[in-house]
Design goal:
about 290 residues; alpha+beta; 5-stranded antiparallel β-sheet; 7 strands; elongated; disordered N terminus
């Protein structure tokens, strides 16, 4: 495999990553088993780093895998990490493992997204929550951010949409700061421009308290479900569904030490019921 000619811009880019991580040249040198003098020479273009040094610095700076390839190319070396399509035969074991994980999490919602929030797999819990979403948003390729924030998606049913929307946009901003992805930037600009559906200021939610399952099964006007306040340890997504308000907190998992760009950018998001009523509702509507 041929390599690209060396590009002195790798030094400033490494400096940019170091400053983004807020560490000194000395600290980076200690992490990468080098010297502050050599780090300085690399950053100013006075010294061309070896391939091994580029990888050590990228590891020490926790640079995303895709960007490590970019650093290598800028330094005049071949990319180290492959980018294998998820539907390739080599990824069959990974796909099967993800499917087993999503099924095992049922009846609670869970999905897998790629680096631009494209949905690559989802379980029945997610499908349940998507009832009422416009069909055009469910035509592949499906995007999780569009599903959530589009006025014809989940947005009109998210009770605390301003808070949840702000959290999602901040999450995207952090991701954009880590990777140079025009597609991700374009998606951010699109979803950030969606109008926020208006909700009546004084909506009477008595009907939510007496949704399917009898009195006390839904959410009260102050955000309590069946008289129990939703967990306060994380921002919940409070979603109207089936005549009541369901409450979830989400967690996101990624793969440890990935050796492929595709795998590195996969994220598994799981939604944990924030109260007993939400858990009971999901168990009742998604039996094994």
């Amino acid at each position: 495999m041929t390599t690209a000619p060396p590009d002195t811009e790798v030094g400033p880019l490494l400096r940019e990553w170091r400053e983004r991580r807020r560490i000194s040249q000395l600290e980076l040198a200690l992490r990468a088993d080098s010297s502050a003098r050599h780090i300085s020479f690399v950053e100013t273009g006075r010294s061309r780093p070896s391939e091994d040094m580029v990888l050590r610095l990228a590891e020490a700076l926790d640079v995303p895998v895709r960007e490590r390839n970019a650093l290598l190319v800028m330094a005049g070396y071949a990319p180290r990490y492959a980018q294998t399509p998820l539907d390739a035969p080599a990824m069959s074991a990974l796909r099967e493992s993800l499917d087993r994980l999503l099924i095992a999490y049922e009846p609670y919602p869970a999905l897998v997204v790629d680096g631009v929030y494209g949905v690559v797999a989802a379980n029945r819990g997610i499908a349940l929550l998507l009832e009422g979403v416009a069909e055009r948003l469910l035509v592949p390729p499906v995007n999780a951010m569009r599903l959530t924030l589009h006025p014809e998606g989940l947005a009109p049913r998210i009770v605390n949409l301003p808070e949840w929307r702000a959290d999602l946009l901040a999450q995207m901003e952090r991701q954009i700061a880590l990777v140079r992805s025009p597609a991700l930037r374009e998606l951010y600009e699109e979803v950030a421009a969606y109008p926020v559906p208006e909700r009546p200021a004084d909506t009477d939610r008595t009907d939510l308290r007496e949704g399917p399952g009898g009195p006390g099964g839904g959410a009260s006007a102050d955000g309590r479900a069946g008289g129990e306040r939703a967990a306060a340890f994380a921002l919940p997504m409070r979603l109207e569904h089936g005549g009541r308000v369901l409450s979830f907190v989400s967690s996101i998992a990624t793969f440890n030490t990935p050796m492929d760009v595709t795998v590195a950018e996969l994220a598994i998001e799981t939604f944990l019921p924030a109260d007993r009523e939400t858990a009971a509702y999901l168990h009742a509507h998604l039996p094994p």
